[in-house]
Amino acid sequence: MRLSIITPDKPVYDGEVTSVTVPGSAGSFEVLKDHAPIVSTLEDGKVIIRTTGKSEEIIRIIGGVVEVVHNEITVLAEGIIEN
Known about the structure:
mainly beta, ATP Synthase, domain 1, eight-stranded mixed β-sheet, about 70% strand, ATP synthesis, ion transport
């Protein structure tokens, strides 16, 4: 699957993932390979990115929208919280 995280300022992430967890407005949910198409609003929170080899990366976002279509995941975030 391919994940892209984009803010109005810049692209934040673009790469292959095995799964991603996003902070949906109705609660966090995980997207795995061949997930049904979906569009959802996002709350402030953690986007947890998992890649091969069990590595995990966390990006904190400020709201936004996620779209999942044909193993392409696009997160349009209002912003990110820098650590």
